[in-house]
UniProtKB/TrEMBL annotation:
<dbReference type="GO" id="GO:0016702">
    <property type="term" value="F:oxidoreductase activity, acting on single donors with incorporation of molecular oxygen, incorporation of two atoms of oxygen"/>
</dbReference>
<dbReference type="InterPro" id="IPR050770">
    <property type="entry name" value="Intradiol_RC_Dioxygenase"/>
</dbReference>
<dbReference type="InterPro" id="IPR015889">
    <property type="entry name" value="Intradiol_dOase_core"/>
</dbReference>
<dbReference type="InterPro" id="IPR000627">
    <property type="entry name" value="Intradiol_dOase_C"/>
</dbReference>
<keyword id="KW-0732">Signal</keyword>
<keyword id="KW-0560">Oxidoreductase</keyword>
<feature type="domain" description="Intradiol ring-cleavage dioxygenases">
    <location>
        <begin position="71"/>
        <end position="159"/>
    </location>
</feature>
<dbReference type="Pfam" id="PF00775">
    <property type="entry name" value="Dioxygenase_C"/>
</dbReference>
<dbReference type="GO" id="GO:0008199">
    <property type="term" value="F:ferric iron binding"/>
</dbReference>
<protein>
    <recommendedName>
        <fullName>Intradiol ring-cleavage dioxygenases domain-containing protein</fullName>
    </recommendedName>
</protein>
<keyword id="KW-0223">Dioxygenase</keyword>
<feature type="signal peptide">
    <location>
        <begin position="1"/>
        <end position="21"/>
    </location>
</feature>
<comment type="similarity">
    <text>Belongs to the intradiol ring-cleavage dioxygenase family.</text>
</comment>
Amino acid sequence: MPARLLPFLFAAAFSAASAPAAEAHGASPLKPVCPGAQGPAPATRARPVAARIECEWCGAAEAPSRLGSSVRLAEPGESGAPLVLSGRVLRADGRTPAAGVLLYMYHTSQAGIYPTRGDETGNGRRHGYLRGWLRTDAQGRYCVATIRPGHYPGRDGPGHVHTTVQEPGGPEGYIDDFVFDDDPRVNAAYRAQRRNRGGSGVVHLTRGPDGMWRGERTIVLRDLGR
């Protein structure tokens, strides 16, 4: 596919003109758009943080006060292959939907760096502008529209999406990164060292004729990192 077509496809795929109606009627989370996706959500749109951020991976304290179950992390036209990640968050029993769970997600650019614009605050200075927040709906569903992250330059790890979770009234914890099973760096040695926090983060992706990558992950709220 010619590279010049990707910005157009990205913008078209993430148009959400009729998304709220689709979500209300139970549309599949693997449609080309994330229903009702808002974003991107750079640090300038985050809640002002009066206190010092507690850790380098944290992000819950910076979340906007009003959130839906979908978010868009990347502007249409951001360099990289469009990607939609969706699924459900379940309680520790692995069966009960977990509603109202805050997910904070951030990742690198196509070039493998955390890009900044210079106006970031809090952990946005570390995590860059490809980050955002959502809350799961009554069925525990979530959907994230973004781009495929690149590998860190000069390092061996796969492309990944960092994710933290916070149940209503609870502490923030982290789960295994989203990684992708078609990445040659997600090999047997890498899989063997995974902790499976929140369940397996190895996601199978499919790519449609529109150039969009799509994958699903079920997150289970157990064995979280703190």
